[in-house]
Amino acid sequence: MTEVRHQALGTDPFLPAILMSRHPTPDLIRRVMFSGADDFVAKPVTAAQVMERITNLIKACKHFIVTSDYIGPDRRKDKEGAEQRPGMRIIPIEVPNILKIKATGSIEAAQLMDMAIEKATAAINLQKLERHAIQIGVLVQLILPSYQKGEINDDLVRHLERLRSVAEDTGRRLVGTKYGHVSELCQSLIKVAGNIAANVQSPTAKDLRLLQPLAQAIQGAFAVEGDAAEIARKISQSIQEGKAKH
């Protein structure tokens, strides 16, 4: 389900999903709900119970929220104080109620469904990109001190893997957005993070030096509206020139 919600599988990230299991455990239920599923039902289950859950989804389709790790229905109990970082308040996004459209059989609504999916997907994508930018900065701030202290451990390896993964997903999501100019920076970050991960015990000083300016450039590109493209271009050009010298 996670791949569907994160637009890595299929064409509709808002596909209604009720997952079932004959042997539910607290950990399984947590993982199912964290994957972005709409609901969870423990087996055995009757047709009436399934119909009740479907009817609930038709009547009350939840807004979606985006965090650094989650995309899916908003199940927060306290929605007032969900601001996790300055400037990064979680903003619920209205998504198309596909079940309702199909249940009512409205031809006009069905014709507008693709447009609604595209609009909601674009809104989620932009929120995810902004959170990725912040996460890239956080990961770099975890990685560099580890090398400065000589703490080459499993946490460092995980941070490097996560950094490369976030940079790759950022590059994928940039296509067709107003932030398309940041793609070159992401490709540079992917390469640098890959170089460090491949030689985690003793990466080159050059690659370590590049992490900070790349993270700052990506964050700056998302934060600065008017000059974002020019900032990204100049920093990327500077990095490329630095590589050529080495």
Summarize this, please?
With 246 residues, the chain is mainly alpha-helical.
Commentary on this structure:
The chain has 246 residues and is mainly α. The chain folds into 2 domains: 2-105, no CATH class; 123-245, Four Helix Bundle (Hemerythrin (Met), subunit A), CATH 1.20.120. It has helices spanning 2-5, 26-34, 47-59, 98-104, 107-149, 154-174, 183-198, 205-223, 228-245; strands at 18-21, 39-42, 64-66, 71-73. It has a two-stranded parallel sheet with strand order 1-2. It has a two-stranded antiparallel ribbon with strand order 3-4. Helix 5 packs antiparallel against helix 6 (154-174) and helix 8 runs antiparallel to helix 9. The chain is globular, with a radius of gyration of 21 Å. Residues 81-87 have low confidence and may be disordered.
